[in-house]
Specification:
Radius of gyration of chain A: 21 Å
Shape of chain A: globular
Helix content of chain A: 25-40%
Strand order of the largest sheet of chain B: 6-7-8-3-9-10-11
Structural class of chain B: alpha/beta
Largest sheet of chain B: 7 strands, mixed
Order of helices and strands of chain A: HEEEHEEHEHHHHEHEHEEHHHEEH
Order of helices and strands of chain B: EEEHEEHEHHHHHEHEHEEHHHEH
Radius of gyration of chain B: 21 Å
Number of helices of chain B: 13
Oligomer: heterodimer
Distance between the termini of chain A: 27 Å
Helix content of chain B: 25-40%
Largest sheet of chain A: 8 strands, mixed
Structural class of chain A: alpha/beta
């Protein structure tokens, strides 16, 4: 079966262990979408794992099933060693305060009829935390850079997108979670506001020792916040490595393609020809063998016959490819990372 | 370097109960034949309203002043009947969301041939042949079959290719692309941008590429204009603006981008505060967020200066590099 990633990690017990996770969605007419197919990953305490992929690759399905918002079809999810799959609703509710999520659209994820203070306090009420909540709520609002006296009594529509995202972060942090899942949390924000929110998340992570699962389609943003990065394609992880290895020494042809495709904000970086052809295959009827082979410049007969498993290439660098390796047309990444290798794990 | 499309003092505002919202404020802009111009700005900067002003696609409560000159005629005051001869034939537009810009109940083929039959004096059969060639050029597999299908049968990337084909069907001189790849995945975005670049070069077409993403315009446009609060705050050759931004907003925007290869967990530069409201603006609209702002900036609106030898223009009293020398004279005007 696929490589047992958990057993290869450092000795300390990880905060989150996901093993052989499978999520399938049923479509009308009986077809099934294989959103997540046999994914295993771990998160160490205080670590940020970036999860990258294009739309439909299953990254949001992973987030939702880790949090049991949509329990997986099979597989195991352990938080602090405690199995979450099949857990009773009462215990799950207790554990919910340990693992929280921030969504992409801050405005639609906040109740429009409630004030900022009551939105942030709601988790405390549900968890039955002792009253009064006001002081804790106000302190948390200050922690995310909002003035509780100015915005505490307002409703979401009176705030900007960036302020709403701060409220969503405060709502999660007030419960002092161990794990924070950010599902495209900065994708809807303008550049100048996005930088503010990314810095805020970094400050909070450092101060509170948060563990982050950071899901994004934006490789530049993931580069800025992650310790390790997992690249997903059609429901599977195709490469998982420390951030410097992913960007400096990518091995999977899909990772190469993604990095080549990033629009770089520097007119002096030459546009390398894109090796990646075509579009993502259907998750309803994924290709045999390697799911990426229909777009892969390196695909051979073996790739259609045999599915490549995620296996360690070097310490901590996992690749699911029969023909992993660097590519020659990679000058732009090399210029971007010179001198950065010292930070590698 | 002949100007193909010239915007002179273009302003667009909307009457609202809260007052007039000035979405585009006194914009001068020139699109040169065969060149590509990037127009960047954050949401609310007025970049999309500007493109819709050029195409006269504004809602009825919009008011417009100024001139948009194309081949000696002002597009804003041209009678609709005459303007219609230019839209699609000489000036075309590609929108962000191809699902809403294509008609869902009309076959792909007819959406392509409609404007050809209208503008080019050709037979249905000839139009169909040309449309099929165009789809093939745009990398659409089985173009003949696709012509008989409907937009919903296509993926997002393929739909955008079709809407680009529809825009190019009559070989326009100018293509305005408003966030053409924002709704697409990064690998598909790359394919579409490469395609637009290739078609533009092959046809010698001028293109205005409107985007919020500085990465999209960096390697793909000759010139660049940066919008903020409805105004153009800086313009010039793309390479010059990226290398030596003079306006503090352009510089701050570039510094706030996360970059590939940056140090792990490094903090980004930020721009404090929020984007401006464009109701009753006074002074420089960036002044409240600008670290170099003085009283002068709050009182008086800086105009876009004359281009320097590299072609760069900026609207700022205290541009980067010149800050120290200018501050002495500031603050005196009350």
């Amino acid at each position: 079966m696929s490589a047992d990633v958990a057993s290869l990690e450092p000795e300390a017990r990880p905060l989150l262990e996901v093993e052989h996770l499978v999520v399938e969605h049923h479509l009308p007419g009986g077809a099934r979408v294989h959103a997540v197919s046999d994914v295993s990953l771990t998160l160490q305490r205080g670590e940020t794992l970036g999860l990258v992929g294009e739309s439909g690759c299953g990254k949001s399905s992973i987030a939702r099933s880790i949090l049991m918002l949509r329990p997986p079809n099979s597989g195991s999810v352990r938080l602090n060693g405690e199995e979450l799959v099949g857990i009773g609703p009462a215990r799950l509710r207790e554990l919910r305060s340990q693992m929280l999520i921030i969504f992409q659209d801050p405005i639609s994820s906040l109740n429009p009829r409630r004030t900022v203070r009551s939105i942030v306090a709601e988790g405390l009420v549900i968890q039955g935390r002792p009253l009064p909540h006001k002081e804790l709520v106000d302190q948390t609002l200050r922690d995310v850079g909002l003035d509780p006296d100015a915005v505490g009594g307002r409703r979401p529509h009176e705030l900007s997108g960036g302020q709403c995202q701060r409220v969503a972060i405060a709502r999660a942090l007030v419960l002092q979670p161990a794990l924070l899942v950010c599902d495209e949390a900065v994708s809807a924000l303008d550049v100048s506001v996005r930088a503010q929110i990314l810095n805020l998340l970094e400050d909070l992570r450092e101060r509170l020792g948060l563990t982050l699962l950071f899901i994004s389609h934006d490789l530049a943003v993931v580069n800025a916040v992650s310790d390790r990065v997992a690249i997903m394609y059609l429901g599977k992880i195709c490469e998982l490595a420390p951030v410097d290895a992913i960007y400096g020494d990518p091995q999977h042809p899909y990772t190469h393609g993604l990095l080549e495709a990033i629009p770089q904000p520097d007119p002096d970086i030459p546009l390398a020809p894109l090796e990646l052809v075509g579009e993502t295959a259907s998750p309803i009827d994924p290709p045999s063998g390697c799911r990426f082979r229909t777009r892969c410049p390196r695909a051979e007969a073996l790739c259609a016959a045999d599915e490549p498993l995620l296996r360690p290439l070097t310490d901590g660098h996992y690749v699911a490819c029969h023909f992993p390796g660097p590519t020659h047309s990679f000058s732009m990444i090399q210029t971007g990372t010179t001198g950065d290798d010292s930070t590698g794990a | 370097m002949s100007p193909l499309l010239q915007l002179r003092g273009v302003s667009t505002w909307f009457e609202t109960p809260a007052g007039a919202v000035r979405a585009v404020d006194d914009v001068d802009l020139t699109l040169v034949a065969g060149r590509s111009l990037g127009l960047v700005g954050e949401s609310g900067s007025g970049k999309s309203v500007l493109s819709r002003t050029i195409m006269r696609l504004l809602p009825p409560n919009a008011k417009v002043s100024g001139e948009v000159i194309f081949e000696g005629r002002n597009l804003l005051s041209l009678p609709r009947r005459e303007a219609r001869r230019l839209w699609g034939a000489e000036i075309s537009m590609v929108f962000q969301d191809p699902m809403t810009s294509l008609n869902p109940v009309v076959r792909v083929g007819r959406q392509l041939t409609e404007s050809m039959r209208l503008h080019l004096d050709i037979t249905r059969r000839e139009a169909q042949r040309q449309a099929q060639d165009l789809l093939a050029q745009l990398g659409i597999p089985e173009p003949g079959r696709r012509m008989r299908g409907y937009p919903h049968e296509l993926s997002g990337g393929m739909r955008q290719r079709v809407s680009i084909a529809a825009a190019l069907a009559c070989s326009p001189q100018i293509l305005i692309a408003d966030e053409p790849t924002t709704a697409l995945d990064v690998t598909i975005q790359r394919q579409i941008l490469d395609l637009l670049g290739r078609l533009r070069a092959d046809r010698g077409m001028a293109m205005m590429l409107i985007t919020h993403d500085l990465g999209v315009v960096a390697g793909r446009t000759d010139d660049l204009a940066v919008m903020y609060g409805g105004r153009i705050v800086e313009s010039g050759p793309t390479k010059v603006l990226f290398r030596t931004p003079r306006h503090p907003y352009t510089a701050a925007l570039l510094a706030s981008l996360p970059r590939i290869g940056a140090r792990k967990h490094a903090r980004l530069e930020t721009i404090p505060g929020l984007p401006p409201t464009v109701i009753d603006p006074r002074g420089c609209c960036f002044a409240p967020r600008c670290q170099y702002a003085t009283t002068e900036c709050q009182q008086e609106e800086p105009m876009l200066g004359e281009p320097d030898e590299s072609g760069q223009r900026f609207a700022c009293f205290h541009p980067i590099d010149a800050v120290t020398s200018v501050t002495a004279g500031a603050g005196g005007e009350q």
